Amino acid sequence: MSKENFADVNGQHIFYSVHGAGKPLILLHGGINPDSFGSNLAELAKGRQVIAVHLQAHGRTPDTDRPLRCETMGDDVAALIGHLKLGKADVMGYSLGSFVALQTAIRHPDAVDRLVLMAARMRQDDAYPEVVAAFNQLEANAAMLGGSVKASPLGQAYPDVDWTNLFRKVGDLTKRPFDWSADVAKLQARTLLVFADADYLRPEHMVEFWKALGGGQRDAGIDGSLRPANQFAIVPNTTHYTLAVEPMLPQIVERFLGTA
Question: Which residue range(s) make up the domain with 109?
């Protein structure tokens, strides 16, 4: 598998890059920035094959007339896993990428082995009110935000992106009500939740997500034999916007992915 490729799947022309060798880990970036993980991508690739995907309209994956929806982008990821003949792959996503990773596991359980969700949400109202309000203004502010990013190093790195259109479509996505809690409770993939201690979600909703996965129900016992299969991490001295590049993240993730 060469380092950079496109796959024509699900009606999309998906860009992905391959790093390292070993068990595949599909890596899904946050909204707007396809390079969300910074140097952590290389760290994650030291012990496995990381396949970093650019989601629809982001980075080197061109946009189509299809609206941005976590469900259809999850279908894209599952189709890519099938296209690459990976069988089941581990899937890890941050922010927008975590919503897509979650929908991949919900809609295509046969494609996902282990799941790492960073700053994931189950419902629209689990973020702080000011965050929800900012998301609701993305469409109205798309031209201003798009022009700012176009002039930035990120915009120069990806000159083919229509940044105003991207902000408009992300705004259309993020303003839509959603509640995936019932689907989360039925997840088959072993899951690691990762949050920043100063994230954009309220802490009670982090715990609610954890409980939906079967955590926080009882003491694990002296020998730990009664602990749940899923795991929960809150990274100290970190915000939503620094979580993906936090240096301790690869160790947290690899500890989970490497457990029996």
Answer: 4-124+178-257
Helix pair 142-150, 163-174: axis angle to 10 deg: 130
Q: Domain containing 82 — which CATH number?
A: 3.40.50.1820
CA–CA distance, 214 with 202 (Å, rounded to integer): 19
DSSP code at position 19: E
CA distance 69 to 104: 12
Nearest to 185, CA basis, from 123, 257, 252, 119: 123
Give the pLDDT confidence of 191-230 residue by residue, as tens digits: 999 999 999 999 999 999 999 999 999 999 999 999 999 9
Please enumerate in sequence order all residues whose Cβ is within 8 A of that of 198, keeping only pairs 6 or more positions apart, or say none: 238, 239, 240
CA distance 196 to 249: 11
Q: What is the C-alpha separation between 222 and 91, in angstroms, rounded?
A: 31
Domain assignment present for 173: no
Secondary element (H or E) of residue 253:
helix 249-257
Which element (helix H / strand E) includes 136? Answer: helix 129-136
Q: Model pTM?
A: 0.97
Residue 1 has pLDDT above 60, yes or no: no
